[in-house]
């Protein structure tokens, strides 16, 4: 009997010892890289912890800034409580599907989809996990919604990078009042780019200006399509377009020697190959998205009723290309800092 009692005591002691060794969790600080990371050491954090998956279509300054703004805002709102898994699709829409399906399998608490291809992939992957888009021009176009009224509903909301397209069309005639032909240069694989150029084309047609679409399919034909646009046009218009943003050097190498100026839909593209833009701050856009995420994660807001949010746009010019083309910047435009 004493031996049995001793055995039971020893077994209970071993069980308690094993339990005391389990349940610890070590996480690494967030760097915004392509690897899974945590915002800080959760061992000292108070309150609930959350896992957020970030799917970014491609690496370029605008999308990078939006992602960083998102991470910074969430870290500020929920210090030490958010683990980020930050993935980049390297410009391949199919990779977005693989990434977000992985997030769904892991059971993340929220998905941030940076760019249209990431958003559509996330929307196809889950109807339950909250999805916040950013760097999306038009949600109705991206998600093929016939009755979009500013709120997507369901498990999707986010922020838009749309700047007033009629004002962008006005910029073309303000900067280049003698222009008669405008080339609309964009990627045919990006539906939001098509939406933008159609709106700008309508505005320019109302001014009596001829337009023609020049669409590249991917990075491989950017140079040849840009050359055709330069041969045709007095001015080129480039919308917010991820493929264009990743190939500004190739575009500039054709437009600048040809003496053809470009008006652009956002600052990142303009800084690489354009003369002027009406652009938002993508970092601020990411911050707004991060603040929305904090409200969703903590239960302060219901994503199904959250309208798409926008940010202010600023008119800017590229001093380097203006100088190369001999163009005098207009009053009221800020210089893009190199």
From TrEMBL:
Keywords, in A-Z order: Signal
Q: Does the keyword Signal apply?
A: yes
User: CDD domains given for it?
Assistant: PBP1_ABC_unchar_transporter
Q: Check the UniProt entry and state the signal peptide residues, or none.
A: 1-19
Q: In which residue ranges is the amino acid composition biased (Low complexity)? A: 33-44
Compositional bias annotation for Polar residues: 23-32
The record's listing under InterPro entries reads:
ABC_transpt-TYRBP-like, Peripla_BP_I
Q: Where is this region: Disordered?
A: 21-44
Superkingdom of origin: Bacteria
Report what the protein is called.
ABC transporter substrate-binding protein
| Naturally occurring in which organism (per UniProt) | Dysosmobacter segnis
């Amino acid at each position: 009997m004493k031996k049995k009692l001793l055995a039971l005591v020893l077994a209970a002691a071993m069980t308690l010892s094993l339990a005391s060794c389990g349940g610890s969790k070590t996480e690494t600080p967030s760097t915004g890289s392509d690897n899974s990371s945590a915002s800080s050491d959760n061992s000292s954090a108070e309150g609930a912890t959350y896992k957020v998956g970030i799917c970014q279509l491609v690496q370029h300054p605008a999308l990078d800034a939006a992602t960083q703004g998102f991470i910074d805002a969430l870290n500020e709102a929920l210090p030490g409580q958010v683990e980020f898994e930050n993935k980049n699709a390297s410009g391949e829409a199919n990779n977005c599907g693989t990434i977000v399906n992985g997030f769904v399998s892991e059971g993340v608490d929220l998905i941030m989809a940076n760019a249209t291809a990431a958003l559509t992939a996330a929307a196809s992957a889950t109807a339950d996990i909250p999805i916040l888009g950013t760097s999306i021009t038009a949600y109705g176009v991206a998600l093929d919604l016939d009755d979009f009224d500013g709120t997507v509903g369901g498990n999707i909301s986010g922020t838009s990078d749309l700047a007033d397209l009629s004002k962008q069309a006005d910029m073309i005639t303000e900067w280049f009042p003698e222009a008669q032909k405008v080339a609309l240069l964009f990627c045919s694989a990006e539906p939001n780019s098509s939406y933008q150029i159609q709106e700008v084309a309508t505005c320019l047609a109302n001014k009596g200006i001829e337009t023609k679409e020049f669409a590249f399919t991917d990075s491989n034909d950017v140079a040849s399509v840009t050359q055709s646009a330069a041969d045709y046009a007095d001015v080129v218009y480039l919308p917010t377009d991820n493929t264009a943003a990743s190939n500004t050097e190739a575009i500039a190498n054709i437009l600048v020697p040809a003496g053809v100026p470009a008006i652009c839909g956002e600052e990142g593209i303009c800084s690489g190959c354009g003369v002027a833009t009406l652009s938002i701050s993508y970092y601020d856009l990411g911050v707004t998205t991060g603040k929305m995420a904090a409200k969703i994660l903590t239960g302060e807001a219901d994503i199904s009723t959250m309208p798409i949010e926008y940010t202010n746009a600023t008119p800017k010019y590229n001093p380097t290309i203006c100088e190369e083309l001999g163009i005098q910047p207009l009053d009221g435009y800020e210089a893009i800092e190199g």
